[in-house]
Specification:
Helix content: 40-55%
Strand content: 15-25%
CATH class: Alpha Beta
Strand order of the largest sheet: 3-2-1-4-5-6-7
Order of helices and strands: EHEEHEHEHEHHE
């Protein structure tokens, strides 16, 4: 069966990724979701592919599954990512390699495969999930590896948007603030809420609405949309 719209979501087993999967299905998209720990699923409009997205073979399998099951790929959301918050000199070689592999390698391989397919279709949309810490460093939240890698995604968003603007493919990013997900234990919520001028943490639904705005805004490309409670504007 061929679907009118098909989305691929990485890091789709919990938190923001799980919310994005539900949001796309709610507007009638078929979805292929990936994460290392995602449960097997083959519903009519929802298929999962387990595996480490930093592995090129897994990235290729995710895209091949979308094409095989649903006939096309309209949107790729690069949501998978790792955050390791430590003072810069305390990062280990293993920290560095893992964060770079997932945050950059995971983006690179699947986006190549997805854009290749989108070029055949003559249309498509890529959304990268970054972090407001890239532009708004916070001395209370050490984030050098996140800035190094997610900053790369913010930059490449604009580069790819310009490269493919004349070929029907848009590339945008959503830059979240601190979002209430399983990554943040409840004991940190009050502290993280105080980092936003609006006085609360963001929700998964806040991010999903930002991604769906970009999805439904055909004249927007090269945009880094801050969904961060005013954090990037100042304090």
């Amino acid at each position: 069966m061929k679907y009118r719209r098909v989305a691929v979501v990485t890091g789709g087993s919990q938190g923001i990724g799980e919310g994005l999967t539900a949001a796309f299905r709610n507007i009638g998209y078929a979805v292929v979701a990936n994460s290392r720990s995602i449960a097997p699923n083959e519903e009519v409009d929802f298929v999962t592919v387990a595996g480490d997205i930093s592995d090129p073979a897994v990235a290729q399998k995710v895209i091949a599954t979308a094409v095989e099951k649903f006939g096309r790929i309209d949107t790729l959301v690069n949501n998978a990512g790792i955050f390791v918050g430590k003072p810069f000199t305390e990062y280990t070689k293993e920290d560095y390699e893992r964060v770079v592999q997932v945050n950059l390698g995971g983006f690179f391989h699947i986006t190549q495969y997805a854009i290749s397919r989108m070029l055949e279709q003559g249309a498509g949309h890529v959304v990268n999930v970054t972090t407001t810490l890239v532009e708004y460093a916070n001395s209370n939240v050490p984030s050098a590896l996140a800035n190094l890698t997610k900053g790369g995604l913010s930059s490449v968003t604009k580069s790819l948007a310009i490269e493919y603007a004349g070929r029907g493919i848009r590339v945008n990013a959503v830059s979240p603030g601190h979002i209430e997900t399983p990554m943040h234990p409840p004991s940190t919520h009050d502290f993280l809420a105080d980092q936003h001028p609006v006085g609360r943490m963001g929700t998964v639904d806040d991010i999903a609405k930002g991604v769906l705005y970009l999805e439904q805004a055909p004249f927007v490309t090269g945009e880094v949309l801050h969904v961060d409670g005013g954090q990037s504007a100042g304090s």
